[in-house]
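Example record used in the benchmark description.
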Amino acid sequence: MAPVLVLAGVLVGVALLLPLVFLLVQAAQTGGHLLSELLFRHLTAVLLWNTVALTAVVTVTSAVIGTAAAYVTERTDVPGRRVLSALLVLPVAVPDFVIAWGWVSLVPSLQGLAGASLVLTLGLYPLVYLPVAASLRSADPAQEEVARSLGHGPLRTFWSVTLRHARLALLGGCLLVALYLLAEYGAFSILRYQTFTTEIFTEFQIGFNTPAASALSLVLVALGVAVLSGETFSARSSRRGRPQARARGLTRARLGRATVPVVAAMAVLMALALGVPVWEICYWSASDQRTALPAASSLASAAWHTALYSGSAAAVATVTALPVAILAVRHRGHLAVALERTCLLVQALPGLVVALALVFFAVRYARFSYQSAPLLVAAYAVMFFPRALVAVQASVARVPVALEEVARSLGRKPRAVLVRVTLPLVLPGLLAAFFLVFLTAVTELTATLVLVPTGVQTLATQFWAYSNEFSYGAAAPFAAAMLGVAVVPTYLLGRWFDRLPSRAVPIT
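Model output (structure tokens):
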């Protein structure tokens, strides 16, 4: 079975490397001298500073907010914990460019590093909250109880014991946030914050300067490699401790006098992350919706095509993530690690680069037509494969190896073990991967602008067309529809992270 998995994993890795091959081909055609001029110029330094500064700020703030929110919901007796847990996940269903649009509609002067940091933190902190909350929920509280019995206060116990246990989950969440930021475009464009992605889009689509755009994309790839290398080093350091025991029951701390400030802080977070964009959507939906733009596809048609393309891509990404996940967990070696890192690196590439790379290869070798539905689905599957891999890999890691060994000892062939033992146990993870990719593809913008079939609009492209013309009343229903399509997958995804039992009792 292993050779089949290796072959499938290698094929997936090769497909995911196509965007990088495209960039290298473009760089080779550009020539070393011109490439050096494009890379070593003042604009590149400005873009590098803007991108690194924003990534650092948003990753740190998302880590702080996500970890604090996870601790409140999983380790304290905060009132309405279940409702609060659901609300904390919902911002991930709101596209970042819709959050940015809502804030700019409310505060037109909001832009620059401060504005981009605020908007992206509000949209991305759930990527840290979800894994950290799941980690805290499954933690054995014995070590925390021992620390408190030795006289350690709540803060010291949290820093030395609780956070240490959740470090791997925290690093994984921060990795997703950082890679997402490297590839984001829509929110930065609305906030007028110049990064590598916005400049790449400008060079490709407006200036038709492919060499310059490819050179900037190579820098973005280098940043992605740096992020992955840092995460790998930190994760190895975090794994040196002893493995944690399975949770025997979670202990909740009494907030006491801190209840009101904590609840107020959570309410402010929800108001900023959800209240502002939802309020603006409701406000503009109730306003005059006339627009000077020509009539486009109906809201129902855009919603149908969005769900169709996103669902197809989610199915492809989930199925192809399974062999890579099994290799990474069950047959971990140099090849498996290289495949895993390669798959995650795609997350740092802008959607525009992925789209143009697929067009480059499809038109020349596969004879797919430009702006065809299969090409758009393939772009979604490539772009969001890392998210599917994270969910599937986490699910495969939770399958006891002993069950598979027992099945093989009873004479079952590896394929039968996979079908009858492994797949049923990882099914929740496969569904979570599907919902995670679907949720992200529903709101994808840059690749969709390039590859959407002629005469077809998605919710994201139609919203973008209207909002760029300041026809906010016409754009608002499409933003509301994106939220509506994404709410159910978000709820189910939250339930997947929340599926571990929580037998909590307050501290007496």
